[in-house]
Amino acid sequence: MDRVSCRTRLPFTTRFYSPPTVLHKLILKAGREKSLKRRHPWVYSGAVARVQGKPGPGEAVEIHSAAGAFLAIAAYSPHSQIVARVWEWQECAIDGAFFRARVASAVAHRRGLLEPDTNALRLIHGESDGLPGVIADRYDEVVVVQLLSAGAERWRQEIADALVEATGATRVWERSDAEVRALEGLPAVSGPLRGAREPSQVTITEHQLMFQLSLEHGHKTGFYLDQRENRRRVRELAAGRDVLDGFCYTGGFALNAFKGGARSVLAIDSSADALRLARANASLNGLQGGEWIEGDVFQFLRKLRDGARSFDLIVLDPPKFAPTAAHAAKAARAYKDINLVAFKLLRAGGLLVTFSCSGGVSADLFQKIVAGSALDAGVQAQIIERLGPGPDHPVALNFPEGDYLKGLVCRVAG
């Protein structure tokens, strides 16, 4: 196989690599290289004309245009519509040294981001850190990793070793149990990758609050680190207000409202296990009072409206209603429903802090949904702030899909 004989500098590191001797190839259909030339890291199966060789799941493949021009090196995923995810845009070896350098780079970029009273943050944010399918979050001395693609799966041991080396963490726990793995033809995997299994519950600190989380059973990697700065913003807004926290999970927003001096807090979630941990977190921080309600948030908010109850601050952080754009229409109805009822529950001058974590719902669409909710609720409202994840969740400009978390702070006219 003809290869350019050169040594390539990776953009994320200062280390040089020699390219491998042979790689399988994906040859694209004519005209389908445009997105790769814009450095979008995904190749869909419909763009591939033919495969040269017999690459296995996760193996490195060269991507070439129909005219034969080299475009990138990627991980092959034969069971997914996203048939390849780009590791590197130049010819280089994909090996243990590659992952050590790229993990070290991602970790180094997070240094100095946290304040002394916080010990949990995202270390690797998938494509935005040049590691498609790899998510890694640090919780004190434990790193929790999700390997969500065939390429990440193939290099799991090297990634685990690189995380220990770059962070000095004593344990690496895997939570590769997200539904998206099924699209890659991969089974769910959860358990220790490095270090002991126990304890399976850890305690973190975040802006002077402590939170317990389960390594085995928590959502995502155990906690919603992308909402860290937004929880603090709710704390700043909560003083003297009656607060409703819908979809409260383990109490992140609710406890910050307490900490900020809320007059009252009502928190709702459908998970009894999450609420038990939320109450435990409240006790851990010496925060007493509040109402913790198990139930369907949609139904319960309607009951509150029928009971003529009202609030000064409502937080809505629902689960992902639209993982892809194909689900956007159905998700729009759910977002409109929940925000409409929330607007009706707000007093004059009240604040709605509302989020979408659905990648299939754009920021523009989400704003239109919330605007429609206010209109149907018969209220005048303004957007006074826009919210998103913290700097440990960067969004690569060539990968807008990484910009999934969208938040609005809306004020109802007094």
Outline the structure in words.
With 414 residues, the protein is of the alpha/beta class. The chain has three domains: 8-88, Archaeosine Trna-guanine Transglycosylase, Chain: A, domain 4, CATH 2.30.130; 96-199, RNA methyltransferase domain (HRMD) like (Transcription Regulator spoIIAA, 2-Layer Sandwich), CATH 3.30.750.80; 224-412, 3-Layer(aba) Sandwich (Rossmann fold). Helices cover 27% and strands 30% of the residues. It contains eleven helices and 22 strands. It has helices at 34-37, 96-109, 150-154, 156-167, 180-183, 228-237, 252-259, 272-284, 297-306, 328-345, 363-377; strands at 8-9, 16-17, 24-28, 42-44, 48-52, 60-64, 70-76, 82-88, 120-125, 134-139, 142-147, 171-176, 189-194, 201-206, 209-214, 242-246, 264-269, 291-294, 311-316, 346-356, 381-387, 406-412. The chain has a seven-stranded mixed β-sheet, with helices on both faces. The chain has a six-stranded mixed β-sheet with strand order 4-8-7-6-3-5. Strand 7 and strand 8 (82-88) form a beta hairpin. The chain is globular, with a radius of gyration of 23 Å. Residues 1-21 have low confidence and may be disordered.
